Amino acid sequence: MAGFGNGTRRYPRSRGRMGSRTGPDRATLGIVGVVCAIAGFFALGIILGPAAIVCGWLAMGRSWAGSRPVPALVAVALGAIDTLLAIIWLAGAAGTGNGLL
Questions:
Q1: How far from 55 is each of 24, 73, 77, 78, 94, CA to CA, in Å?
Q2: Interhelix angle for 70-95 vs 26-40, to 10°?
Q3: Other beta carbons within 10 Å of 83
Q4: Longest dimension (CA), the chain
Q5: What does pTM read for this prediction?
Q6: pLDDT tens track, the chain, 101 positions
Q7: How many Å apart are CA 53 and CA 62, to the nearest integer?
Q8: 34: Cβ–Cβ under 8 A, 6 or more apart, which residues?
């Protein structure tokens, strides 16, 4: 007896028909990743680069297969470049002089 006006036709999200809406969605994560990657070129690249990679990877749905949103792919690529440049910069700064003069 599914009467009394409480059927599932009015409420499509009931009974697990759609995913839960807690946390940021994939589009937001992709945009946050791109912003982190671009900001990482100017400051704190060693922190913002990996943050951009993680945000981009989460925006892709934690999978390399299937369709990839453009902001997520850009976030991963720029985050990787940013992280690599930060590591090279840190290695170069540590290698010269060694703090002796």
A1: 10, 10, 12, 12, 29
A2: 30
A3: 21
A4: 86
A5: 0.69
A6: 555 655 555 555 555 555 555 667 888 899 999 999 999 999 888 999 999 999 999 998 888 777 778 899 999 999 999 999 999 998 887 766 665 55
A7: 11
A8: 52, 56, 71, 74, 75, 78
